[in-house]
Each structure stands twice: as structure tokens, then as C-alpha cells.
Specification:
- By secondary structure, the chain is an all-beta fold.
- The protein contains no helices and eleven strands.
- The N and C termini lie far apart (40 Å).
- The model has no long low-confidence stretch (mean pLDDT 95).
């Protein structure tokens, strides 16, 4: 059974840092690009960050560029999202997603939801001002 399980969310103050983790099971990590999306209350899903299969290429939303870092450990089947200098507008449920080799190329770090076919259940991040 393919599964993505996020962890690491919580309640923090503006300016604090958090690291989200996404543990994958039932899929071969090196054949999947990985991404993070988020959804704030009453808003659409928003792309946050992505990393290609090999881990050498990343992409970020402009709103998080310079503050967030995505990385993956293929040996541990885990992808991380390091979030620094958090702002209240970062408050959302954060979702981890996997994009199979059928949907994205080796060098691709996709930023669109349609490229992702496996999703986690999400972890809440709340940033107070």
C-alpha cells in the first residue's frame, strides 16, 4: 500500500522555524519527484516547493523562496521542508505529494497539482503574530 505520512507541524510564533517531514512507504523514492502544497482556510491549494527524483533540482513558490528549503533522503524515503522566518500567512495545512515517473521527467520538480498522483493527509502549521 502506497502511503505518505507528514509530521512536524504545530503552533509557532512569527519568525520561528519548523521542519516538516514526509515519510513514504510502498513506493520507490528515486522514481518520484516530491512536492509540498498547502491550503489555508477558505483558499485554494497552493504550491510550496518541489524536488526532482534525483534531488538535485528544486522549485519554490515566490512567497517562500529564500525562507523554505526542500530536501529528500532517498535512502530513508523521506522528504523534508525546512521553514524559516515563518509568517502568519504561512498558516495552512501542508500536504506532501509524490509525482510518478509517468507524470514528470527526471529533471522536473513540478509545481502543478495535476502532476502529483499520491497525496498525504496533511499536517497543520499555525503561525501566530
Amino acid at each position: 500500500q502506497v502511503q505518505l505520512v507528514e509530521s512536524g507541524g504545530g503552533l509557532v510564533q512569527a519568525g520561528d522555524s519548523l521542519r516538516l517531514s514526509c515519510a513514504a512507504s510502498g513506493l520507490t523514492f528515486t522514481t518520484n519527484a516530491m512536492g509540498w502544497f498547502r491550503q489555508a482556510p477558505g483558499k485554494e491549494y497552493e504550491f510550496v516547493a518541489a524536488i526532482n527524483r534525483g534531488g538535485g533540482r528544486t522549485s519554490y513558490a515566490d512567497s517562500v523562496k529564500g525562507r523554505f528549503t526542500i530536501s529528500k533522503d532517498n535512502g530513508q524515503n523521506t522528504v523534508y521542508l525546512r521553514m524559516n522566518s515563518l509568517k502568519p500567512e504561512d498558516t495552512a495545512v501542508y500536504y506532501c505529494a509524490a509525482s510518478s515517473s509517468a507524470l514528470s521527467g527526471w529533471n522536473e520538480a513540478p509545481s502543478t497539482r495535476i502532476k502529483y498522483n499520491i497525496w498525504g493527509q496533511g499536517t497543520q502549521v499555525t503561525v501566530s503574530s
